[in-house]
Design goal:
heterodimer; A: 349 residues; mainly alpha; two-stranded antiparallel ribbon; 2 strands; globular; B: 273 residues; 15 helices; 0% strand
Chain lengths: 349, 273
């Protein structure tokens, strides 16, 4: 763990490195992968929260969306990364969620699909980004979820999988985004479990690692794309966990830290995050649970949900129920440090 | 790139500068967007011929970057923009073929090819192209997906003649590589919606291979694949005996395909429920 923590911190600041420079346009996503990986190994404090949050905020453009870095244009991908990073640092209150959702909603097209930006590239990845963003901000009401679902479903293929656009080849990455989108929309009933389940667990190669399509090579990042989709379908057990775990661990760089795509290759922060996330889904190595639909630690999602419920209640003008059942009090307790604080708050309403 | 954007200058000069940014990092999406904006601005008052020439030059530039950066979203989307502005897709299939010769499963290339086919209606010859690629590499899953895509757009997927012909095509490729899942998934995808009875030969083929014919060192002769498809065929028939048999097949598959034992147990448990 310490090796991986040091690796992530090192690559986050090594601005001279080639990898740092060629990934500069997607810096926000890089920060999300690094920060989420650190959170999962209980080392988020290795990053300077104030600096990260202010950097993220500085990437917000006039339209409300976030760019991948300073000097770039706003894009759906980096808007999601921004919201995810802020959630990790419990800093969602630092942005105007209406502004962000106006940008996200503006990218939805009449057929329910989402463009990545004003130039109109369409991809089910962007459908996922929109729904995930909305869900993290508690604002699924701001987009047309039904038509978003219809478009995602139109990308379902003859083999039960999903592609980038209607007819696009089934690919584990696209399947994660589509199953994730359907999960966030509450429409997993539309998935063909037998076929897609078979397709997903057929990704496991004899060596234990997972590939992204039939007859391709295993790669650590598919430990996330495939496993998260199975997890959302409540079938994580369809993968041979011991074999996959062995594969992920064999992709670690035991000298310099970090995880690579394949054993012996050079690590990068993308594969480091997805390798750790894969171990989390397997429930091994003391990695805390990750929420598969949002690709965020479960502990963070608990705080996010509490925050959103409180905000929704405030918007509706309703005061929380005073004579709460114990489960509700646990939720209320997470939003207020003490009962006294809570009573003062309700008195103000 | 930031300073170029800040200047707000759309000119031949900044167009050239954006090229230098892309040379250092072809995934810089802002640079590609800037190029599209530049061309629009530079030729806002131009004649249609001049605009065509500009987009043709840009397409040539895009093609060179595409050959250098095969796995880059931006270069492919930029290509769609150029070709859309030109309204001419006549050379695009050849370009994609060039890319596929280097990387036959390139996800972007196949997606772009689908866009070209649908946009310009260039379906003729595509099935032959797919056949040729499969002869070169029977394991190319992208080609199988493409085949379904073409037929769905141009033919009647419920036609008995088509289904029989496609089943024969798939079986021919199963013969060459019986453990490759692609043709098996293709058969399932084609026949599940209309019923496996549409092509009885498919069931017969599954029964033959499931009975352990064809196994060799390092390959089970397609036995696991055949048994898996047979489970679906038997389930569809619905008779008590066939359901019992499919349950037994699932149990056997749990042992023969142990890495997916949990999946087969689940399938078995759901039969007749």
């Amino acid at each position: 763990r310490a090796l991986h923590r040091d690796y992530v911190v090192r690559v986050s600041s090594d601005s001279e490195s080639f990898e740092f420079q060629v990934s500069e346009h997607l810096r926000l996503s890089g920060v999300y992968w690094g920060a989420c990986a650190l959170h999962l190994i209980d080392s988020l404090s290795a990053l300077d929260a104030t600096y990260v949050v202010s950097f993220v905020r500085s990437c917000q453009q006039g339209c409300g969306g976030f760019a991948g870095n300073l000097g770039h244009d706003a894009h759906m991908l980096y808007t999601l990364s921004a919201v995810q990073i802020l959630a990790l640092f419990d800093a969602l209150d630092t942005i105007d969620e209406d502004r962000v959702m106006r940008y996200v909603a503006s990218l939805q097209r009449p057929d329910g699909s989402f463009a990545g930006d004003e130039w109109g590239e369409v991809d089910t990845r962007f459908s996922y980004c929109a729904l995930c963003c909305a869900s993290l901000l508690g604002r699924l009401d701001a987009i047309n979820v039904a038509s978003a679902v219809a478009y995602v479903q139109s990308c379902q293929n003859f083999d039960g999988g999903y592609g980038c656009e209607p007819g696009g080849e089934s690919h584990a990455g696209q399947i994660f985004t589509c199953v994730g989108a359907l999960s966030l929309a509450g429409r997993l009933d539309l998935v063909h479990r037998e076929e897609l389940g078979w397709w997903l667990c057929e990704r496991q190669t004899p060596g234990g690692g997972l590939n992204g399509r039939p007859q391709k090579d295993a790669d650590v990042c598919y430990s996330w794309w495939v496993l998260s989709a199975l997890n959302l379908l409540d079938h994580t057990g369809w993968i041979d966990a011991a074999a996959l775990r062995a594969f992920i661990l064999s992709c670690q760089d035991l000298d310099e830290g970090g995880i690579a795509d394949k054993p012996g290759d050079v690590p990068d922060v993308f594969h480091t995050f997805f390798g750790i996330a894969g171990l989390s889904l397997l429930g091994t190595d003391n990695v805390p649970p990750i929420d598969a639909a949002h690709a965020m630690p479960v502990s963070v999602m608990q705080a996010v949900r509490a925050r959103n419920a409180a905000r929704a209640a405030a918007r509706a003008g309703a005061a929380p129920v005073l004579e709460a059942e114990p489960p509700l009090m646990r939720f209320v307790d997470s939003a207020f440090a003490t009962r006294v604080e809570y009573e003062l708050w309700t008195a103000e309403m | 790139m930031a300073s170029i954007l800040a200047s707000g200058e759309y000119s031949e000069r900044t167009l050239k500068l954006s090229g230098e940014v892309i040379a250092r990092n072809a995934a810089n999406y802002t640079a590609w967007q800037f190029r599209r904006k530049c061309i629009e601005v530079l030729h806002a008052d131009a004649t249609p011929e001049e605009r065509q020439r500009a987009w043709r030059d840009e397409l040539e530039y895009c093609g060179k970057r595409g050959l250098e950066n095969l796995k880059n979203y931006q270069v492919w989307f930029h290509r769609r923009s150029c070709v859309s502005n030109l309204g001419d897709g006549s050379r695009e299939l050849a370009f994609v073929e060039e890319i596929l010769a280097e990387d036959s499963k390139n996800y972007h290339a196949w997606g772009y090819r689908q866009w070209v086919l649908a946009r310009f209606g260039l379906w003729e010859g595509e099935l032959d192209f797919i056949g040729r690629l499969l002869r070169e590499d029977v394991r190319n899953n992208s080609a199988w997906n493409q085949r379904y895509f073409v037929l769905k757009a141009t033919a009647d997927l419920a036609s008995p003649e088509l289904l029989a012909a496609e089943a024969e095509f798939a079986e021919g490729h199963i013969e060459l590589s019986p453990t490759n899942p692609s043709p098996w998934n293709y058969l399932r995808g084609l026949l599940e919606p209309v019923g496996y009875d549409a092509v009885p030969r498919v069931r017969a083929m599954c029964e033959e291979r499931a009975a352990a014919g064809g196994a060799q060192p390092g390959s089970d002769g397609g036995r696991v694949m055949a048994m898996g498809l047979l489970v679906d065929v038997l389930l569809a028939s619905g008779s008590r005996e066939e359901l019992d048999r499919s349950r037994a097949l699932c149990k056997a598959l749990g042992e023969m395909d142990p890495i997916r034992a949990a999946y087969w147990r689940w399938r078995g448990s759901r039969i007749g429920v």
